[in-house]
Amino acid sequence: MYRRRIKRAQAGGSDLRSLKAGRSNSLGRQHEAAIEGACRYYRDTGRANIIKVPEPFRVEHKTSPTTAYVRFIAHAQPDFFGTLGNGQAIVFEAKATETDQLRQAVVTPTQAATLENFHRMGAVAGVCASIGRFGDCYFIPWAAWRDMKEKFGHKYVTREDIEYYRIRFNGCAMFLDYQSRDRLTTGSADTELHD
């Protein structure tokens, strides 16, 4: 059945869009799982307690014991909220793409407003992004994401634009640990993320 869908998709039409959407959703789930692994590590080592926030939805009706039709009932908030070991709040959105650039518009207005509000209150706020190959991960502070046009000259970022914000990846997206050498000498991301 899958091979037939691929052949139909190669001919064009809605099957191609469906396959691309499925692949994109799968990449997003992989990226979030890598972040959740880092959250567990940070919790176990006492550096932070950060949780994934579930999407707000209501079950319309169940079709089987394991399947249901649902309706989203509110605009999505940022994906992760928590507290760092020093008591500072942290909130961030997770975004992933297989393309070579990530558009600023992928953060919804509701998510942007929430990130801005937390940032203004002194929380660490940002976007944990995976661009291109899985494992190329970055934690972009909210101020840099918000001011993307001024900082990078366009309303998208490429890996080259945000190399400074690359984080360690060991199967988990270690968003509190920047990888660049100049950052390694000044400390970890949990003390530097607030621009």
Describe the structure.
With 195 residues, this protein is α+β, with helices and mostly antiparallel strands. The protein has one domain: Trna Endonuclease, Chain: A, domain 1 (3-Layer(aba) Sandwich), CATH 3.40.1350. It is built from six helices and eleven strands. The chain has a five-stranded mixed sheet. β10 and β11 form a beta hairpin. The longest helix is centred in the N-terminal third of the chain and has 32 residues. It is globular, with a radius of gyration of 18 Å. About 5% of the residues have low confidence.
Which short descriptors sum up this protein?
alpha+beta, five-stranded mixed sheet, globular, 11 strands, Trna Endonuclease, Chain: A, domain 1
What's the layout of helices and strands?
Layout: H1 2-10, H2 14-45, E1 48-52, E2 57-64, E3 67-72, E4 80-84, E5 89-97, E6 101-103, H3 109-120, E7 124-131, E8 137-141, H4 142-146, H5 148-152, E9 156-158, E10 167-169, E11 173-178, H6 181-186
Parallel strand pairs: 5-7
Antiparallel strand pairs: 1-4, 2-3, 4-5, 6-9, 7-8, 10-11
Helix pairs in contact: 1-2
